[in-house]
Specification:
Layout: E1 3-7, E2 12-13, H1 14-26, E3 30-34, E4 43-50, E5 58-66, E6 81-84, H2 89-93, H3 97-108, E7 113-116, H4 120-126, E8 133-134, H5 141-146, E9 150-151, E10 160-162, E11 165-168, H6 174-184
Parallel strand pairs: 1-3, 1-6, 2-4, 6-7, 7-11, 8-9
Antiparallel strand pairs: 4-5, 10-11
Length: about 190
């Protein structure tokens, strides 16, 4: 059974945590949801981001999400893929050196990586986007460019693939992002 490392944290976007985690479990992967400085059984608080006609998204309390693995026990070499949730969590998760080292491992070994929305901030901080084409929440676009990546302005319900990396601007892109991530993982789903 292939194993996925799922990186999230306090005030990650609710859908961007719950939905990919459940989708990946549904297709049969072992998924370890982790957050720095937290262990198996601890919870994170999520936030719901919505678009209600303001100049940016609004933020409301989400759910408590139980982590099923301890961050301290993560060995990146044990995983076949990495998924990074968006929301506000990436702005502080990118300050954790082990998060950056884990992220670099997946690029150094060319393993599949999926990141959504602000999750791309971890990629830019890890220095892995130089020369890559990728998308993100539009407000993160300048960070992509400054880190040497080529920001792709795509519809919010789409995903963009460049090599081992699949990215999407926000949670409406989950179906496209997960579909592309599953292809990178070598999954074959027949209906």
């Amino acid at each position: 059974m292939k194993k996925i490392l799922f990186l999230t944290g306090d005030f990650a976007e609710d859908y961007e945590t719950m939905v990919p985690f459940q989708m990946l479990l549904m297709v049969g992967y072992e998924v370890h949801a982790v957050c720095p400085d937290k262990k198996r059984g601890d919870t994170i608080k999520t936030a719901i981001h919505d678009f209600e006609g303001d100049q940016t998204y609004t933020e409301k309390p989400g759910h408590n999400f139980a982590l099923n693995y301890s961050f301290a026990d993560v060995n990146a070499a044990d995983y076949d893929g990495l998924v990074i949730a968006g929301g506000r969590a990436p702005e502080y998760l990118r300050l954790n050196q082990k998060v950056l080292e884990i992220t670099k491992h997946f690029f150094d070994t060319n393993k599949p990586v999926a990141a959504v929305c602000h999750g791309i901030q971890i990629l830019t901080a890890a220095g892995v986007v130089k020369g890559k084409k990728l998308t993100a929440y539009p407000a993160v676009g300048p960070e992509v460019t400054q880190a040497g990546g080529e920001y792709q302005d795509i519809p919010v319900n789409a995903a963009f693939v460049d090599g081992n990396l699949v990215t999407s601007p926000a949670w409406p892109g989950h179906p496209a992002m997960i579909q592309e991530f599953l292809k990178l993982m070598g999954a074959v789903i027949s209906i």
